[in-house]
Design brief:
By secondary structure, the protein is mostly helical. It is 48% helix and 12% strand. It is built from 6 helices and 6 strands; from the N terminus they run αββαααββαββα. The strands form 3 sheets. It has a two-stranded antiparallel ribbon. Strand 3 and strand 4 form a beta hairpin. The longest helix has 24 residues. The chain is globular, with a radius of gyration of 19 Å.
């Protein structure tokens, strides 16, 4: 029997996409990497395929994910970055053996060590988080306006006023709720 897992939420920013492996943080949390195999799947989908993944690797990955989320949340609300989160991000960045390579099409791609390890993949994710948190990329960190989500995302919209981590999920859910509330008021006033 095949176990069904929630779909991955994939974005264009590696670090914040990684934090989206846990969604609805303030509601009924959805863990999208519940097993080492699912972490390996997520890494492969994001161009960071690894040879194997253990339970210990999954714990390291979750610690990095939560550290990135804590630091991104602090940055989004312009609070100081939590020292413990910065320590984990820096530690994971320094431990891996990955190199940026240029593809023939002019794109940056990551090449992991010869025996691709989760530690190498996590270093790439941590390095991406460092670039975002240090302000090296054009955009801003923001938090999803959904009261049950509150995911950190990287807003690259022209106006930098995006409200939702994903319009197809959180944005639509909020629009539907407003619509139904408005419909309820109309039917209540018609009686």
């Amino acid at each position: 029997m095949r176990v069904e897992f929630p779909e991955f939420r994939l974005g264009s920013v590696l670090a914040t996409s990684f934090t989206a492996t846990l969604t609805e943080r303030r509601g009924n949390a959805v863990e999208r990497i519940p097993t080492p195999h699912r972490l390996a799947d997520w890494l492969a989908v994001n161009g960071l395929a690894v040879d194997s993944c253990t339970t210990a690797d999954l714990e390291l990955a979750r610690e990095l994910r939560e550290s990135i989320h804590a630091a991104a949340t602090a940055a989004a609300i312009q609070d100081p970055l939590p020292a413990s989160a910065v320590h984990v991000i820096n530690d994971r960045s320094a431990r891996g053996r990955a190199a940026a390579v240029l593809t023939p099409g002019g794109k940056r791609q990551w090449r992991l060590g010869s025996a691709s390890r989760v530690e190498d993949a996590l270093s790439v994710i941590a390095a991406d988080a460092i670039g975002i948190l240090a302000g090296e990329r054009d955009g801003r960190l923001a938090l999803c306006a959904s009261p049950t989500c509150r995911a950190a995302f990287f807003d690259t919209s022209q106006s930098r006023t995006r409200k939702w981590c994903e319009m197809n999920t959180c944005g639509n859910r909020q629009k539907k709720a407003r619509f139904h509330a408005k419909q309820g008021k109309k039917s209540g006033s018609a009686e």
